[in-house]
Amino acid sequence: MAAHYDHGHTPAAWTGVIISFLGFCAAGGFIVAAEPVAFWVSMGVVLLGPLVGGIMRTMGLGRKSDPHLLTGQDRAALREEAQEKEQAAAHAGA
Question: Where are the membrane-spanning stretches (predicted)?
Answer without folding.
Answer: 12-31, 37-56
